[in-house]
Amino acid sequence: MIPLTRRQVLAAAAAMAAGAGRTGFAAASAAAEFQFKYIVGSCMYGYLYLGEILPEVAKCGARYLDIWPKSHGNQREQLADLGEDLFASLLQKHDVSLGCITQYKLGPFGLQNEMKIAQRLGCQTIVAGGSGPRNLKGAELKKAVGDFLEKMKPHLEVAEETGVTIAIENHGNNLIDSPDSLKYLAELRPSENIGIALAPYHLPQDAQLIAQLVKDLGGVTKVFYAWEHGDGCTKRLPKEQELKQLPAYGPLDFGPIVQALVDIEYSGWTEIFMHPVPRGIPIMETAAQVTSEINKSRTYLSETLSAVVGGK
Question: Is the Cα torsion angle 167, 60, 227, 264 positive or negative in sign?
């Protein structure tokens, strides 16, 4: 038997002290093996051609692409122009798979054709927003989430047939935009083919609150955006301020959040993310510079993960 490292022993002790339901050594082993499953958002590169973006995916420590339409990116439109066969061959050339299609403009009730396209391309996730009344709380909010899920049932039948999961993002000014609304969605969902795309940007910038929400949602979260609010993304800012949306640049401590992701053995997508102003431009001038900024955040997340696993 290979002896445990000091970090694994420390992690095991922490797990046992926390009253873990399994043995501390098993928890330590799982924590030590945890890795982020990175996916790259095409819109980080603005309207650049897919042929320029795809070589960057592996450089970002990923093998998967999340493809965005206008106005954030235009790679979904590029797919339509190329046709599915040529698009698939382009992915294959660069050893990239389509992991996600983001489709806010179609809405959660307009995804049936998109799910069939996703199935043909081997893509298992579509991100959308949750439409419905806003600014509700308590019983009214829970009922509205339940009504939304009832309306989703015909679409979830297609999701089940195509093997696609519809991940609802907690986008601001939507029905599903608060911690409570996310918890109601997780509690009431009628199918495993609907989940959550969790965006810390749109939540209170409280690391402990976000970490607890990660634990509360558990495996219902299918996409985690490594994205904080920083100084926002609604008006032009100097680049150094705009980049504060990225982990390591802004003030949010991702330590408790990463710990929570490890604790639930999170296996969904992790997307290092931000929005530029105006939409449709790359977050930096060149593809190489975009990749460099993504990797600075990835290094921060890797170091944070090492500290969590090491019990520091």
Answer: positive
Rounded Cα–Cα distance for residues 203 and 193 (Å):
24
Number of CB atoms found within 10 A of residue 206's CB: 14
Q: CATH no. for residue 224?
A: 3.20.20.150
Q: Is 72 exposed, middle or buried (0-12, 13-18, 19+ CB in 10 A)?
A: buried
pLDDT at 17 over 70: no
For residue range 230-242, list pLDDT tens digits in order: 999 999 999 999 9
Structural domain including 83 reads 31-309
Q: Where are the alpha helices (DSSP H) in the chain?
A: 6-17, 24-33, 50-59, 75-82, 84-93, 112-120, 138-162, 179-188, 207-217, 239-242, 255-263, 287-309
Is residue 25 pLDDT above 70, yes or no? no
